[in-house]
């Protein structure tokens, strides 16, 4: 596949270009339409944020989807609710727009659910000038509003007509359904269809500067169990006597700490327990134990996460962890298992070329250039499932938010305008990009 907007065409652009200096007439219309629709966008944001849609509140997730479906249908999209009850979740809302054959196929990704279940005391939307506060206001209901604002502006400017777009809004991004293969099957199918994937979770901003997200790390889990022959503590360390499960656990975890660190890799230990015996809870999020100080402990358990930037780094780290686990202390044994959940969105030339295209738009709009955001500072996201399948992907296209996943989560409402304008112009230019 050859992209008409190849790397050479994305050369240096003057950062100081005046606003709208290089924008076409339709693009100038996009800028005006987004600005004119600001209060409408905020009103819709309030409406969907005020409806609780915690990942496990299935009726609430469906209610948000029902609010959004007419918005997409009014723009000429075919809307589909994809039931996910078999995976233990509510479902996904997909909206599809069929445009001109042969143009760039774009997959826009967001999510309907939040981390705030009905039991959370944080439920209310409030507005304080250009700041909005509420559960999921940035992550990721704000991202959905950016998508809609951009698409409305494209329609008004005439650039939506030829666009081939699928908007995938998952209902379980914050706590994916099980089995994961079923929960993400429709998203992955859309990724196989698409040329480009655009993720509309929050914009990365530091010290007043906007950044582009060309990479995100994986999110995987691991569980570790160590065993040792129990006996009287007075015999510990003697030849032929077990060192016990806790010393073996400590050896492994400390060797992880000393030998594994490298750039863009983290491996947290979330919890652990050791004794005679120690047992992992049925929820896999807790452990219990009993024991005595004069008994060599028989069992220890621990669980944590593993975050990497590339599949190769994942494989290499797993192999190194396994080798450490297998080098047992006398009289002990250990086993480790891995739960591969969210893959990484690795940095690629295609992703960087897409950011360069966005930076050309920034220059044309009189905005500062966006540098690459360090992937170690971003968590996993649904775009990672499709990033290996498309020619290019770019994340962080949602609004500028603060305090995600915590009471008081907020967004800068002014950021909705520039994010929707950027996204609409980018998609309009991608429609014109030749794909062979």
Topology-level CATH name of the largest domain: Aminopeptidase
Coarse morphology: elongated
Largest sheet: 6 strands, mixed
Portion of residues in helices? 25-40%
* Gyration radius, in Å: 25 Å
Let me know the average pLDDT. 94
Strand content: 15-25%
CATH homolog superfamily of the largest domain: Zn peptidases
- Unreliable stretches: 1-20
What CATH first level of the largest domain would be assigned?
Alpha Beta
Strand order of the largest sheet: 1-2-6-3-7-17
SSE order in H/E notation?
HHHEEEEEHEHHEEEEHEEEEHEHEHEEEH
Keywords: Hydrolase, Metal-binding, Signal
Protein name: Peptidase M20 dimerisation domain-containing protein
Signal peptide: 1-21
GO molecular function: hydrolase activity; metal ion binding
Concise synopsis of the structure shown:
It comes from Altererythrobacter epoxidivorans. With 436 residues, the protein is of the alpha+beta class.
Strands, helices and their partners?
Elements: H1 25-36, H2 38-49, H3 58-73, E1 78-83, E2 91-97, E3 105-111, E4 126-128, E5 131-133, H4 141-157, E6 164-170, H5 180-183, H6 185-193, E7 196-199, E8 204-206, E9 209-212, E10 219-228, H7 245-259, E11 269-275, E12 278-280, E13 287-289, E14 299-306, H8 311-326, E15 332-342, H9 349-365, E16 371-372, H10 383-386, E17 392-394, E18 401-402, E19 410-412, H11 414-432
Parallel strand pairs: 3-6, 3-7, 7-17, 9-16
Antiparallel strand pairs: 1-2, 2-6, 4-5, 5-19, 8-9, 10-14, 10-15, 11-14, 12-13, 18-19
Helix pairs in contact: 1-4, 1-11, 2-4, 4-11, 9-11
């Amino acid at each position: 596949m050859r992209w008409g907007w190849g790397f050479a065409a994305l050369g240096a652009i003057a950062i100081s270009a005046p606003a709208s200096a290089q924008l076409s007439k339709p693009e100038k219309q996009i800028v005006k339409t987004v600005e004119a629709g600001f209060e409408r966008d905020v009103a819709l944001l309030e409406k969907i944020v005020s409806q609780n849609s915690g990942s496990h509140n299935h009726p609430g997730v469906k209610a948000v989807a029902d609010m959004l479906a007419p918005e997409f249908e009014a723009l000429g999209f075919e809307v589909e609710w994809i039931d996910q009850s078999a995976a233990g979740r509510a479902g996904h809302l997909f909206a599809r727009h069929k445009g001109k054959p042969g143009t760039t196929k774009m997959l826009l990704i967001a999510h309907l659910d939040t981390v705030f279940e009905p039991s959370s005391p944080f439920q209310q939307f409030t507005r304080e000038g250009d700041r909005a506060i509420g559960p999921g206001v940035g992550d990721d209901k704000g991202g959905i509003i950016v998508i809609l604002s951009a698409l409305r502006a494209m329609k008004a400017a005439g650039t939506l007509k030829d666009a081939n777009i699928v908007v995938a809004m998952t209902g379980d991004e914050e706590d994916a359904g099980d089995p994961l293969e079923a929960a993400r099957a429709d998203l992955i199918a859309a990724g196989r269809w698409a040329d480009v994937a655009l993720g509309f979770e929050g914009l990365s901003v530091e010290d007043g500067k906007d950044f582009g997200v060309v990479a995100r790390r994986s999110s995987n889990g691991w569980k570790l169990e160590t065993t040792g022959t129990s006996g009287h503590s007075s015999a510990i360390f003697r030849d032929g006597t077990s060192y016990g499960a806790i010393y073996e656990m400590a050896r492994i975890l400390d060797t992880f700490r000393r030998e594994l660190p490298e750039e863009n890799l983290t491996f947290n230990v979330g919890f652990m327990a050791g004794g005679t015996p120690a047992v992992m809870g049925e929820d896999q999020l807790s452990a219990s134990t009993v024991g005595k100080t004069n008994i060599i402990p028989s069992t220890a358990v621990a669980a944590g996460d593993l975050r990497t930037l590339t599949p190769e780094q994942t494989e290499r780290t797993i192999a190194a962890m396994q080798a450490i686990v297998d080098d047992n202390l006398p009289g002990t044994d250990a086993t480790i298992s891995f739960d591969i959940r969210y893959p990484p969105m690795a940095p690629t030339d295609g992703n960087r070329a897409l950011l360069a295209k966005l930076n050309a738009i920034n220059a044309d709009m009189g905005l500062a250039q966006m540098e690459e955001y360090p992937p170690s500072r971003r968590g996993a996201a649904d775009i990672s499932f499709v990033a290996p399948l498309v020619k290019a992907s770019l994340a962080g296209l949602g609004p500028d938010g603060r305090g995600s996943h915590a009471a008081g989560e907020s967004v800068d409402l002014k950021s909705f305008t520039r994010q929707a304008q950027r996204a609409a112009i980018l998609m309009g230019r991608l429609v014109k990009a030749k794909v062979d």
